[in-house]
Amino acid sequence: MKNYDVIVVGAGHAGVEAALASARMGLNTAIFTITLDNIGVMSCNPSIGGPAKSHLAKEVDALGGEMGRNMDKSFIQMRILNTKKGPAVRSLRSQADRKIYALEMKKTVEKQENLDTIQDIVTELVTENGEIRGIKTKTGMEFCAKAVVLATGTFLRGLLYIGEKRVKGGRMGELSADDLTSSLKNLGFKMGRFKTGTPPRLDIRTLDLEKLEKQPGETEVPLKFSMRTSNEEAQSRPQLSCFLTRTNLTTHKIITENLHRAPMYNGSISSTGPRYCPSIEDKVVKFSDKDSHHLFLEPEGFHTTEVYISGLSTSYPAELQQKIVNSIEGLENAHIMRYGYAVEYDIVNPSELDYSLETKRIKGLFLAGQLNGTSGYEEAAAQGIIAGINAALKVKGKEPLILDRESSYIGTMIDDLINKELFEPYRMFTARSEYRLILREDNADIRLSEKGYKVGLLPKKYYDKVLKKIENVKNTITKLEETKLGTSNKKLVEILEKYGESLKSGTTLKEILRRPKVTYEDIKYIAQDIENPPKLDFDAETEYQIEVQVKYEGYIARALSVMEREKKLDTKLIPKDFDYDAMKGITREAKQRLKEKRPYNVGQAARVAGVTPADISVLIMYLDGILK
C-alpha cells in the first residue's frame, strides 16, 4: 500500500489539470488512467476555443494551467472568431494536431515532479466516517490519499452505440470503468446518465477539395492561448487549411428514411445528449424546415490523412454512415477511416458539490469534468484545475479557492452546475454570464493571474508581466486623457477626414479613440504630430486592452452597476399568471423551462436550467414595463 497526498482518477483534460496543479503545489500526487497511451487525448473534435470556451481556456492559463500552453505547442490552425462583434464575444479558436497535443501533454505529465502515473482501473473509494481515505483498483492494489479527485470522463459504465451494435467502453477501443459507479451509489451519491457522440473520420485523399470551400488560418499576427508562449513561438508554426461543405436534401432523405436504425430514435438510447452539439439525425428531425446544414472538414494533424467532420456526429450503422457521407458535395468518393458512434455514461448530480468542487457527502473527495455533467474539453480543464488546486489546499489545511460569477466564466459554470437543475450536458456560452463585457477573453490574465500566483501555480515572472501590463494600460489611458489635440495636428485631420468626422476644440486622444471607427493604430499615427507624445508602443495584447477599456468604458461601468442590481433578484416577484409566450428576445428553451417551473421570483428563474442571464435581463425588462 502506497500513500499519496492527492490521487487523481482519470487522465483526460480535467484529470491532467488536477494532477499537475496538485503536484506543482508541492503535493505528492498520483494520476490513474485506464491506459497511459491516452493521457490528454482529444476524444472528439481536435480543437480548443470558440465563444466562451476560449475564455475558459485563457482563465485556466491565467491560473497556471496547461491546456493553453499545450495547444500553442500543437496547433495546426489558429483563428479569431467574431471579429466584427464586440469584445465580449470575440474568441480565439484553434485546431490541434491530435497526436502532438496528446504526446506533449503526456510528456508534461511524465516530467512533472511529485507526480506518479499509474495504469490501472479504479474500482472503489475507501472512506471512513464521511471522509476519503483512498482507492482500490482492479489489480487488487489499495492506495491511501488525503484527497481524491475523480475525473472519469465518459468511462463510468460507458456504452458505445453504432446502429444496432453495442460495445462496452468509454471510448472506441478502450475499456469502461463499471465498478466505480457502484461505489459512488453505495456512498449515497445521486447519479444520472448522459450521452454524447462523435462523427466519422474521412481520408482526405478521397475528398474532392475543389468542390469544398477552403478556410485557411490567420498568420498575419501571432495568435496564442498562453501568456507563457512567446510571439515568436506562436508565429513560427505552419498551419493547415480546413474546408466547408453542406448537407443536402438527398442527405436528409437518407437520414429520415432510416430513423428506425438510429439508436436515438429507436429506443436504444434513453439518456440525454448535448442540446447544442446534436447528432446529424437530431438536427434533420428538429430543423426539418432547413434544406442543409453546415459541415466543417478539419484535418487531424500534420502526419495523418484523417479528417474530422464537425457537424456530422452520428450513431447510425456503418453502412448508412457511408451513404450519408457520400451524398454530400465533395465527399462523393470519401472513404471513412473511423465510424462515428454515440456513448452513454454515468454522471454524479452536481448538486452534490460545493463551490470548491469538493463533495458535500464525502470530505476530501472532489469531482471534475464530464462526471459533473458538463460537455467540452475547456469545461473539463477548468473544473480540473479548480479541483486540483482545492484538493491541494485542503491537504495543506488552507481555505479553498472559490471563483464567483463576478470574477470568471469558471465561477459562472460552477455556480450554474450547483444551483441549476441539470437535464442535459452543460456547455459554456457567453450568454450564460450576465457580466460578459467584464469577463472578456482578453482580460483573463488581469482577472485571475493574482490567484494563480498566490496558490503557487503561476510563476512570478509571468505574474510580474501581467502587473506590468496593468500598469501600462492604466498609465497610458491617463496620458490619452491628458493629451489635448487641435486642428494643427495634420495627421489627426487626415484620420478624421478618412472617417468623415469633425473635431471639437480641446478634444483629447482618449476622446478620439472612443469614436467607433478610430483604432489604436490611428492614435499612434496621430501621436507622431504631437510634441513630446506619450508612450504608445506596446505588445499587441496591451494595446488591445487599452483600446477596449477606452471604447467600452461607459458600457463597462453600467455592467458593474448591473452586477449590484442583480444581487437583489430574489426580491423581485413574478406574477403567477405571467405570460412567458408573449415574451420576445428569449430562447425557446428558456420559455419551455420557465413555463414548466413557474418560479416565484427572478432569482429562482435565474437558477432554472436552460435559462441564461441574457434571458433574465429580458425578463426583468418585461417585469419593469420597459418591454411589452
From TrEMBL:
<dbReference type="InterPro" id="IPR047001">
    <property type="entry name" value="MnmG_C_subdom"/>
</dbReference>
<feature type="binding site">
    <location>
        <begin position="10"/>
        <end position="15"/>
    </location>
    <ligand>
        <name>FAD</name>
    </ligand>
</feature>
<feature type="domain" description="tRNA uridine 5-carboxymethylaminomethyl modification enzyme C-terminal subdomain">
    <location>
        <begin position="550"/>
        <end position="621"/>
    </location>
</feature>
<dbReference type="Pfam" id="PF13932">
    <property type="entry name" value="SAM_GIDA_C"/>
</dbReference>
<keyword id="KW-0963">Cytoplasm</keyword>
<dbReference type="InterPro" id="IPR020595">
    <property type="entry name" value="MnmG-rel_CS"/>
</dbReference>
<dbReference type="GO" id="GO:0002098">
    <property type="term" value="P:tRNA wobble uridine modification"/>
</dbReference>
<dbReference type="InterPro" id="IPR044920">
    <property type="entry name" value="MnmG_C_subdom_sf"/>
</dbReference>
<keyword id="KW-0819">tRNA processing</keyword>
<dbReference type="InterPro" id="IPR026904">
    <property type="entry name" value="MnmG_C"/>
</dbReference>
<dbReference type="GO" id="GO:0030488">
    <property type="term" value="P:tRNA methylation"/>
</dbReference>
<comment type="subunit">
    <text>Homodimer. Heterotetramer of two MnmE and two MnmG subunits.</text>
</comment>
<comment type="function">
    <text>NAD-binding protein involved in the addition of a carboxymethylaminomethyl (cmnm) group at the wobble position (U34) of certain tRNAs, forming tRNA-cmnm(5)s(2)U34.</text>
</comment>
<keyword id="KW-0520">NAD</keyword>
<dbReference type="InterPro" id="IPR036188">
    <property type="entry name" value="FAD/NAD-bd_sf"/>
</dbReference>
<feature type="binding site">
    <location>
        <begin position="273"/>
        <end position="287"/>
    </location>
    <ligand>
        <name>NAD(+)</name>
    </ligand>
</feature>
<dbReference type="Pfam" id="PF21680">
    <property type="entry name" value="GIDA_C_1st"/>
</dbReference>
<keyword id="KW-0274">FAD</keyword>
<keyword id="KW-0285">Flavoprotein</keyword>
<comment type="similarity">
    <text>Belongs to the MnmG family.</text>
</comment>
<dbReference type="InterPro" id="IPR049312">
    <property type="entry name" value="GIDA_C_N"/>
</dbReference>
<dbReference type="Pfam" id="PF01134">
    <property type="entry name" value="GIDA"/>
</dbReference>
<dbReference type="GO" id="GO:0050660">
    <property type="term" value="F:flavin adenine dinucleotide binding"/>
</dbReference>
<dbReference type="GO" id="GO:0005829">
    <property type="term" value="C:cytosol"/>
</dbReference>
<dbReference type="InterPro" id="IPR004416">
    <property type="entry name" value="MnmG"/>
</dbReference>
<protein>
    <recommendedName>
        <fullName>tRNA uridine 5-carboxymethylaminomethyl modification enzyme MnmG</fullName>
    </recommendedName>
</protein>
<dbReference type="InterPro" id="IPR002218">
    <property type="entry name" value="MnmG-rel"/>
</dbReference>
<dbReference type="InterPro" id="IPR040131">
    <property type="entry name" value="MnmG_N"/>
</dbReference>
